[in-house]
Amino acid sequence: MNKQPQVTEQTKANIRQAFWELYAQEPIEKITVKQITDRAGYNRATFYLYFKDIYDVLAQIEDNLLDVLEQLINRRLLRESEPDFSEHMGVFLELARRYSAQFLVLLGDRGDPAFASRFKQVLAPILDRFLVSERALSPREAALLHEFYLSGLLSVVVAWLRDPQGMTIAEFVPFIVNDVCNAHL
Amino acid sequence: MNKQPQVTEQTKANIRQAFWELYAQEPIEKITVKQITDRAGYNRATFYLYFKDIYDVLAQIEDNLLDVLEQLINRRLLRESEPDFSEHMGVFLELARRYSAQFLVLLGDRGDPAFASRFKQVLAPILDRFLVSERALSPREAALLHEFYLSGLLSVVVAWLRDPQGMTIAEFVPFIVNDVCNAHL
DNA sequence: TAATTAGACAACAGGCTGTCGAGTAATCTG
DNA sequence: CAGATTACTCGACAGCCTGTTGTCTAATTA
Q1: Which of A132-136, B30-34, B127-131 has the lowest mean pLDDT?
Q2: What are A91-126's pLDDT values in tens digits?
């Protein structure tokens, strides 16, 4: 029986955690490997056993987060034969709440714009199922309308996450459906 | 007559230009002062006469861009007693086109998320004049709706800029007004 | 013409990065 | 259970980048 890999995983997790605590406080370009390993309690060289550089740590965290999102979408949302927007929104908002600490940092002012792009790519197929228009749009117009809703919805969800004293999911969903999206659902 | 300041300004402009050429190609954290000054044809130390660090160069470029935008808004748009959304949009799109190279980089995947925030703050007062809702919204709801449109419109404009072969301003404005925003104008 | 100022630079100290080889502890094998 | 092997961690090194200081040159001023 091999017990070592657990040590490795624990070490990686500790380093990721230390990185994340720093990343929530200061921009990534000010963070040094020494800061991270000091905080995690390892030698600086140990960092390089598990990560290529500091951006690799961030990438792993992002990949993991997008994986969770993708699983949710593929397993719970895209399978339904009669999709319901409110239900989809509710499910998504629960996930957003659970990972709000990460989302708020990654999508915030010190965050990673590339993450926002990837996030939107993952969400795109869901929006496709609901977006309609009065008038028949050209492919180009449809793509732009899609981009509008994708960015708008993502931003409004982030704004909602930023205000923990604000609306509950039960209040927020009908607001989105009735007041924000009423034109194109 | 003092001719020196012109030399200074030219030097700064050369350094800014060299930085920008690099920034369009690679992420800012990979850029070194040496790269910039080599490209601009100065000694590395000269850089520090005019800029605090590399982020200071970016900040100056961003400030300048937001200044231009703010001037446009204060002088041409907010003064009108009977504002017209289509006209505002058209004026804004001309500016966006003129500076599209900068906007596309700053608002793109390798860009600066803080710039997007500041950009939206500058645009906010304009949107305030046009955004309405069927139902009376609470302040919290109104803020969220505002955020939705601000982010959505900015993203759709960026998507439009990315596609130079795409719609003209004359085609794009009515699309925005009639197909995208029809619910809340 | 002499003094002052602006502009540019070479050189230095200090910090961070990425790597390599050595050391220690845990696991496997005969 | 003893010796070999593997997993894991660390100290140390070379090289690059940063930010600053003092110096040199050329232009401006008096």
Answers
A1: A132-136
A2: 999 999 999 999 999 999 999 999 999 999 999 999
Contact of A59 with chain B, judged by CB distance below 8 Å, is answered with: no
pLDDT at residue A170 is higher than 80: yes
**Residue type for position B73:** I
φ, ψ at B129 (rounded to 5°): -75, -15
| pLDDT of res. A134 | 79
pTM greater than 0.85 (yes/no):
yes
> A142 touching B, CB under 8 A?
no
Q: Which domain holds residue A80?
A: 56-184
pLDDT, tens digit (0-9, with 9 covering 90-100), for A1-32: 344 556 788 999 999 999 999 999 999 999 99
**Protein CA at B56 to nucleotide C1' at D2, angstroms:** 64
A45 and A62 assigned to the same domain: no
Residues in A closer than 8 angstroms to B33, CB to CB, are none
CB spacing of A167 vs B109 below 8 angstroms: no
A69 with A41, same domain: the answer is no
Count of C-beta atoms within a 10 Å radius of residue A21: 12
Q: What interhelical angle do A54-72 and A85-98 show, nearest 10?
A: 150
Domain count, chain B: 2
B185 vs A: CB within 8 A: no
Which nucleotides of chain D does any protein CB come within 7 A of? 7-12, 16-22, 27-29
User: Quick one: closest CA in A to B54, which residue?
Assistant: A29
CB A153 within 8 A of CB A130: no
Could you give the angle at the alpha carbon of B168 between the alpha carbons of B166 and B170, nearest 5°? 150
CA at B56, C1' at D15: how many angstroms apart? Answer: 27
